[in-house]
Amino acid sequence: MLEALQLTKRFQERLAVDGLQLRVAPGEIYALLGPNGAGKTTTINMFLGFLAPDGGEAKVCGVSVAADPVGARRKLAYIPEQVALYPRFTGVENLDYFSALGGKSHTRAELYELLEGAGLPRAAAERRVGTYSKGMRQKVGIALALATGAKALLLDEPTSGLDPAASHEFSRLLRRLAKDGVAILMATHDLFRAREDASHVGILLGGKLVAEFTKDQLEGEDLEALYLEKLRA
Amino acid sequence: MIASIARKEFVDAWRDGRFRLGAVLMALLFATASLLAWGQTERTRAERAAAAALERENWLEQGEKNSHSAGHYGVNVFKPVAPLSLFDRGIEPFVGTTLFLEAHRQNQAAFVPAQDATAMRRFGELTAAAGLQLLAPLLIVLLAFGAVAGERERGTLRQVLSLGVTGRSLALGKTLGLGLALATLLAPLGILGVFVLANSEVEASYGLWARAGGLALAYGLYLAAVLLGSVTVSALAPNGRSALAILLSLWAAACVIAPRLANDVVHEKLPTPLLAEFEKELSTDLQQGLDGHDPRTKQMEDFTQATLTKHGVARVEDLPFNFYGLAMLESERLASEVFDHHFGKLWDRIEEQDRAVALGGVAAPLLALRSASMALAGTDFTHHRHFAVAAEAHRREFVRVLNEDLMNNARPGDHGYVAGRALWEQLPEFKLAPLSAERALERAKLGLAILAAWVVATLVALVAASGRLRVDVA
């Protein structure tokens, strides 16, 4: 469960996030749309505890991020636009290291299985990640979410720059995680993926959540038109 | 968690081609330095042993002569080579190795190795100590500058912290891992050193292993402080390039500028007299007495009168022994007071300078390390003073035996008296008992304490810096 309760962040005079109220329940995928500077990444950073809110509160599975940032981080996984890995380590070694940092220990066989589950074949997992494409890196990120057994997942522009096949594969994995009960908050510009994957879509504009739709509400609607309409309003 | 981070950092360091290249270069440098130093030490030891044997032979074969004349014939004594000088030559290249012992004069050690060297010596000596003092910190800088700053640049810092890892765990784990990588690099060299020392002929009283242990401690503390400081800078710097620039500047300041600056400041604040001034003052006090009011001639006249009164005679020729021999003994006694005063003052000042330079370690840990390293290796000024004091004691004993022989065996007024080999053989060869390891550790204590303080200070700085570790959120 991810909750933003009147979450507010100000950078000098500018309100980056303005009283954001949202809730992502287990099994839900919440797509946060908005133009650059709308406050999407600031919101993600507040959930991660990298930024302290000026008002309100962020909670991860009931744990207040402000009160216990490390405890909150222990319950989530984070996949940025570009998953950062150690270039002198193989995919499986990276996963081993990161999952150990996340407090989970896996056998080598389990790690390969997790990577294969995330779509990274064993041969690729044994290569140093210096040679990896962005899609392969994102798969390691997904495998890490699987490996740590995170109850919540934060994604920041995860499909940006991925080719359609890789993007499709990534979506499949996200839906699998949601099915397993993970609460997923995804900041994205990708309207197509939001439409396809999200159970909820929110539009953030100038730090304010100006619209929110369920998947059912979007049925038969043109999300792009709705989005542009909100932007022009 | 810290163990996982340390293990990853250790593996990452060894997979880093720059570290491997540095490690190979360091290993080659240490091996070359150690072999060259070992060869030079053995050669010097053999040369001095041969010279000492030749000197003894010359002394014994000098033929018959007046025993006081033999005092002027004199003997040379040679400074033994400190076993650990193969690791750290300290001041050895810049102080004399040979002392000429003769009647009436306390000489300074002559034959300074640096005088025989080419101008290339100004570039410094290739020793294992120099490598650890100057190059190992550079390797640490290259290894550690990106420890945290690199993670920030790569984006992995975000990834790592998002998993609930604290900045402190990350920084401490990285320090531990890098420390292990460095220790693995230095371990074979340490084992080589232990092997060489175990096969060296060393007097037990030298306390070889206590000294070697002290050296290991001093260098361990120094490198730990450099590593902790480097990771701290990496944690505080916005990026790897800044961290590297800051660390290289600090290295240059601490390893290149600070030693020269410290020497200049200390010589300015605690000056030692020029050799010519020293000799002039010594000569004046030998003539005028230490208080300047009781000239030597007057002192000797008083002594003559007191001796005549004591024995109830009017002329020295009527004394029951050769007065010339007794007068020489008294003259030596008076001169010894002057020598002790002047040399003592000079040597105390030089030791004071050494302590002041070691105290400079508070600003630049290399100064504290150098002080401790030379003391433990037996190549500092205190060890040189120990040699000079022992040689002077030998000189006084040697002159005393000769003068007493003259006093007791030459008839009063007999200027034709000669002694021979039997007397020369009574004079023992010069053997220097090594300064104890306890004294060496005592001398190294200040440097070791400063280095320990550096480790604590850099650890506190690292904990503070890593506690405030933030990711870029722009």
Described by its quaternary structure, the protein is heterodimer
Give the distance, in angstroms, between the N- and C-terminal Cα atoms of chain B: 28 Å
User: Order of strands across the widest beta sheet of chain A?
Assistant: 6-7-8-3-9-10
The CATH homologous superfamily of the largest domain in chain A is called: P-loop containing nucleotide triphosphate hydrolases
Quantity of strands of chain B, as a count: 2
| H-E string of chain B | HHHEEHHHHHHHHHHHHHH
Tally of separate domains of chain A: 2
Spans of chain B of at least 5 consecutive residues whose pLDDT stays below 50 are none
Task: Tell me the β content of chain A.
Answer: 25-35%
The pLDDT mean of chain A sits at 91
What structural class should be given to the helix and strand makeup of chain B? mainly alpha
Alpha carbon gap, first and last residue of chain A? 31 Å
- Largest interface, chains and sizes: A-B, 29 and 23 residues
Largest sheet of chain B: 2 strands, antiparallel
- The percent of residues in helical segments of chain A reads 25-40%
Tell the overall outline of chain B: elongated
